[in-house]
């Protein structure tokens, strides 16, 4: 009899104690799969979202996030401070600067969002302002990230509905100005970034054959699919070099 009380001739016992042959390979594969599944369940329990990790595809969040970083995300309202906006769980750059709340090197939350109908991976950018329907949000915005100081000359102003104004930390303009996305509704937010691990995301990017995304491609398609039309005279000369930090899901 074996230590676990099974007969050595029992099929399960032979499988568990085999030292050579196909049984060893199958046993190791099953062990690895179970370990990955357990880790996945633990991450889901902690984050509340699935998948709980994304790989950063481009450099628009540099230097705070780099291409190839693996980013762990959670439900927006999980671990959020009391001064997050309403029930969204998101702290804007504007509020973060006032409350002394910073993530990834700057005030405010970095969110992962995807406008409906958009192609490609979700976008990972920082929430800068929360605006209300009909608001002239240009008056509260940083003029450095705008092509003009007049609401009439800025896309998505006045705000067509309640939502967030977003921007990649390394980009020269707000997403809603450069054509990356319209005002971001709270229901489009898939998660809030919490922790990044450098380089680990490269494995996923290599398999996905991800390339740098320019806003003159999917950025305009995203805006158009969401019902916001951007014309050339609404875009500044710097927007053609604006990149989109998208996250390939793990």
Could you estimate the helical fraction of the residues in percent? 10-25%
Class by alpha and beta content: alpha+beta
Total number of domains: 2
Q: Count the beta strands.
A: 9
Q: Give the rounded overall mean pLDDT.
A: 78
Largest sheet: 7 strands, antiparallel
Question: In terms of per-residue confidence, which ranges show pLDDT below 50 for 5 or more consecutive residues?
Answer: 209-240
Element string (H = helix, E = strand): HHEEHEEEEEHEHHE
What percent strand? 15-25%
Shape: elongated
Distance between the termini: 44 Å
Quick tags:
two-stranded antiparallel ribbon; 6 helices; elongated; seven-stranded antiparallel beta sheet; single chain
